[in-house]
Amino acid sequence: MTDRERFLETMSFGTPDRIPYWEFGVHGQALARWHNEGLPRNVSLEEYFGLDKRERIAVNFQMWPEFEQKVLAETDEFQIVIKQFGMKQRRWKDGRIGMPEFLEHPIKTRADFQKMKRRYDPDSPQRYPQPWDEYIKRCKERDYPLYAQAFRHIGFFGPIRNWMGLEPLLFAFYDDPLWVHEMMKFIGDFLVAMAEHIGPYITLDYLVFFEDIGFKGSTLISPKVFRTFMMPHYRRVTDAFRKYGTDIFFADSDGWNDNLIPLWMECGVNGYSPMEVAAGGKGPVELRKEYGRDLLLYGGMDKRVLAQDKEAIEKEVLSKLPYMVEKGGYIPTIDHAIPHDASFENYVYYRQLIREVAEGGK
């Protein structure tokens, strides 16, 4: 099977030759460690481990133009910077793992929002690879999955949080709900317009919504707020892409999201990732038992075991993967980017176990 055939067969609960081999991602510090522990520097992770190919569509769903990136101040330890999406951050200079400190966001007033809207013109030719006809031809001839995903952009709660900041957005749901409705509608209009630009020419195999709406043991908003503000626009977007043959939609949300999964499903999102079990939510086995074939999944392998030993890795993989391979509709990956405390030896062992289960080994 080609990588695309394998993906589509897996996601349709069919009989692929094996499950796809994917990985969620690897932090830079982990990759630097692995290079010192045996991973060749001139070989990509995909090549070294034989991971299946998938490709993000080369259409720009992000704000355009971006903000000018610049350093405003720095010490021996930190920099204060303006990033490409307009956020003012304080960050470590040595590139260590961890969230930056968010000091300021680009939208504080309605006037700021009006200015931001100019950066989301779906007709902007800079959004589309050129020559467009040649790119369309290449996409139609592909033998690997093609998908759309844009960090901080394809979504609703996630993008607005990054425009405004978390606390201002949470207050705005109650203090200025009409404004939040206006922003949600604007994002929905933009994504529907992008579907109309892409869909007649290129069929995406799947689309990923970025939200990061979960926390540990809870979500950042209630199901009622989600239903009121977000669901109508979710449905518009999934309907727009489905019209052109895209049938798979994943919600990508870190943390605990159990109470929102049925709402996502109600508005046409039939997949969920990455299932961060450290946040206390349900893993792939529990979700498969609860939702059956109505919910597609990828992720769900606890990253913490990679910092432990082979026994812990075996327990994690063998408690989930044989069942999920049998039931279908699932692709294993670590439940978020692999951190620096994961040794290369442990990750090699983890990938060997995945392959043995997937290909009928013991």
> Helix- and strand-based class?
alpha/beta
Beta-strand fraction estimate:
5-15%
Lateral strand order in the biggest sheet: 1-6-7-8-9-10-11
Number of helices: 13
Average of the residue pLDDT scores: 96
Tell me the count of domains: 2
**SSE string:** HHHEEEEEHHEHHHEHEHEHEHEH
Q: How many beta strands in the DSSP annotation?
A: 11
Q: How many angstroms separate the termini?
A: 23 Å
CATH architecture of the largest domain: Alpha-Beta Barrel
Could you describe the largest sheet, including whether it forms a barrel? Answer: 7 strands, parallel
Morphology: globular
Rg from alpha-carbon coordinates: 21 Å
CATH class of the largest domain: Alpha Beta
Q: CATH fold name of the largest domain, please?
A: TIM Barrel
Fraction of residues in helices? 40-55%
Oligomer: single chain
Unreliable residue runs:
none
Task: Set out the fold topology.
Layout lengths: L2 H9 L16 H10 L7 H5 L5 E2 L13 E5 L3 E5 L5 E5 L8 E4 L5 H8 L14 H9 L5 E3 L8 H8 L1 H10 L1 H22 L7 E5 L12 H20 L6 E4 L8 H6 L4 E3 L10 H8 L4 E3 L11 H18 L2 E2 L12 H15 L4
Parallel strand pairs: 1-6, 6-7, 7-8, 8-9, 9-10, 10-11
Antiparallel strand pairs: 2-3, 3-4, 4-5
Helix pairs in contact: 6-7, 7-8, 8-9, 12-13
